[in-house]
């Protein structure tokens, strides 16, 4: 496996473009942006605008004190529109000033569109959070990340398993076992969201106490766009007897309205998507999390909050180690049984599978080393 540990030989003048489009992409890019800034690397932060609500985008730019991004205002639409609009607007933007290197986090439609621009314009692409596999191509994100991985020049793997997946697929770019930059964010902000006064304020705002409630969020297309699946989840939530704080994603909200499905659980409190620190504080103190989010699988594991996933498989296999992350079929009875079984069973995990909390700091030396080049096999 070409797992490299680059050292800069001399300082190279670079212009780096880091491109996000959604909430989790901004979060995982935040420490990378700070690392570029700290090393004095000339960079721009571009946001496609796939997510545009304040709660899904600007709030993170503000809270993480990021440079104001160049916004391409792609917005919502079907997959083809979003890929097309990202390609069109980003390539036009790059014609003004072409970056030497792109950094693209995650596996969203924005990530795919942006990487296609890099591949076509022969700008070396660094894929952040590379090598995740669920081996299910019906999941849009799986298709996106496989395409991005196979065209990328540098592949930043968050875990040894992800690096091994890339090795098995014989990707052409260089693989770097970096660690997970979402863990960097969590570690950096722990002193804020675990600060006793902050915790007291957040818990009293939602009228809950440590360990006696559930935090819930779900939004995946395969779970909420299909009424029969959404109905299984709604029916399960309606049967649960503990307080539930539900951070509702706009996709979920739209589908609940369109499908005429309703929650009738008096223990349920629905809230708009929350700022990072508030959400993490609630997860760190919850007796249980229910989710289909990728990021929350890692965060609940690191914080030791038991998790009932709506998925029946995961790319984040490390989270299964202690038996407190439960996967399974999307049926009302399975969800209810797993929630009742895991509620309150907080645990101690080993977060070192995600690195040392300083993964982003490893990126500038790699960029400055001159190693990030288009693989020869990709050239005419
Ligand atoms: C996207 C990603 C998903 C990621 C999620 C993070 C893809 C294929 N999916 O899903 O991998 O987990 O972001 O949250 O890229 N909407 C708003 N306001 C917004 C954004 C969206 O109301 O600011 C609504 C619109 O009705 C839109 C729908 O949510 O059609 C879905 O948004 P979209 O960005 O297409 O996908 P996500 O479900 O957010
Ligand atoms: N998150 C947040 N506020 C919320 C819900 C989630 O800040 O109300 C954070 C969460 O802590 C994690 C990220 O958003 O860092 C996960 O994003 P999402 O679930 O939208 O996407 P996924 O990880 O599934 O791609």
CATH class category label of the largest domain: Alpha Beta
Number of helices: 15
SS-based class? alpha/beta
Mind describing the biggest β-sheet?
7 strands, parallel
Q: What is the CATH architecture descriptor of the largest domain?
A: 3-Layer(aba) Sandwich
Supply the CATH superfamily name of the largest domain: Glycogen Phosphorylase B
Low-confidence stretches: 4-11
Number of strands: 13
Can you tell me the overall shape?
globular
What share of the residues lie within helices? 40-55%
Total domain units: 2
What is the percentage of strand-forming residues?
A: 5-15%
Q: Write down the secondary-structure element order.
A: EHEHEHEHEHEHEHHEHHEHEHEHEEHH
Round the Cα radius of gyration to an integer and report it: 20 Å
What's the mean pLDDT score?
95
What is the CATH topology classification name of the largest domain?
Answer: Rossmann fold
């Amino acid at each position: 496996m070409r797992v490299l540990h680059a050292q800069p030989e001399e300082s190279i003048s670079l212009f780096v473009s880091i491109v996000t489009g959604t909430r989790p992409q901004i979060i995982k890019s935040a420490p990378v942006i700070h690392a570029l800034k700290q090393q004095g690397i000339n960079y721009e932060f571009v946001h496609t605008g796939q997510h545009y609500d304040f709660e899904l985008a600007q709030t993170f730019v503000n809270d993480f004190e990021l440079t104001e991004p160049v916004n391409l205002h792609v917005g919502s639409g079907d997959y083809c529109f979003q890929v097309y609009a990202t390609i069109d607007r980003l390539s036009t933007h790059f014609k003004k000033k072409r970056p030497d290197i792109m950094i693209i986090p995650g596996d969203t439609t924005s990530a795919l569109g942006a990487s296609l621009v890099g591949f076509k314009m022969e700008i070396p692409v660094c894929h952040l959070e590379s090598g995740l596999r669920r081996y299910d191509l019906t999941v849009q994100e799986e298709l996106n990340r496989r395409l991005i991985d196979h065209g990328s020049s540098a592949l930043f793997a968050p875990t040894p398993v992800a690096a091994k997946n890339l090795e098995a697929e014989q990707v052409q770019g260089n693989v770097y076992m970096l660690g997970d930059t979402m863990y960097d964010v969590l570690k950096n902000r722990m002193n804020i969201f675990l600060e006793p006064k902050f915790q007291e304020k957040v818990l009293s705002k939602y009228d809950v106490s440590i360990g006696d409630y559930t935090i819930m969020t779900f939004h995946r297309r395969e779970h909420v766009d299909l009424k029969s699946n959404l109905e299984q989840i709604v029916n399960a939530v309606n049967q649960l007897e503990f307080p539930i704080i539900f951070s509702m994603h706009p996709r979920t909200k739209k589908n609940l309205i369109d499908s005429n499905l309703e929650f009738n659980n008096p223990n349920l409190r629905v809230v708009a998507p929350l700022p990072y620190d508030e959400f993490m504080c609630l997860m760190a103190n919850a007796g249980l999390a229910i989710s289909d989010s990728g990021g929350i699988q890692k965060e609940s594991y690191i914080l030791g909050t038991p998790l009932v996933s709506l998925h029946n498989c995961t790319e984040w296999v490390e989270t299964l180690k202690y038996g407190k992350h439960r996967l399974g079929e999307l049926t009302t009875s399975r969800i209810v049984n797993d929630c009742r079984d895991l509620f309150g069973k907080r645990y101690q995990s080993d977060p070192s599978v995600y690195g040392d909390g300083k993964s982003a700091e490893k990126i500038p030396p790699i960029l400055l080393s001159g190693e990030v080049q288009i693989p020869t096999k990709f050239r005419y």
